[in-house]
């Protein structure tokens, strides 16, 4: 899978978790969950854990969705551990700057 980081052999799954982001039912459920959080909690943003192990296209789409659903400004930050500045810059480009690192 060329959509996730290959550090330490994590080519597809992080700690064995197989979340099928190509399945529309999965991505819609994750969007629903975000809307529920925004409607239920007084949160002002999201921290996305282990972002390099999840396809960047998903977080780009997800960020657009949650910002469109929110009744307020949101801050979205992704946890992406890397010493490689180029990898970090590439990720920001892949998500069109919609997620901070």
UniProtKB/TrEMBL annotation:
This is Alpha-amylase. It comes from Serratia marcescens. Coiled coil: none annotated. GO terms for molecular function: alpha-amylase activity. One of its GO terms (biological process) is carbohydrate metabolic process. InterPro entries: GH (IPR017853). It comes from the Bacteria. PANTHER family: ALPHA-AMYLASE (PTHR43447).
């Amino acid at each position: 899978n060329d959509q996730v980081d290959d550090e330490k052999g994590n080519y597809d799954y992080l700690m064995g978790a197989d979340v099928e982001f190509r399945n529309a039912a999965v991505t819609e459920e994750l969007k629903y969950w975000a809307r529920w959080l925004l409607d239920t909690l007084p949160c002002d943003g999201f921290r996305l854990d282990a972002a390099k192990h999840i396809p960047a296209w998903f977080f780009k789409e997800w960020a657009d969705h949650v910002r469109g659903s929110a009744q307020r400004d949101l801050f979205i930050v992704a946890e992406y551990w890397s010493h490689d500045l180029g990898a970090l810059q590439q990720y920001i480009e892949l998500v069109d700057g919609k997620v901070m690192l």
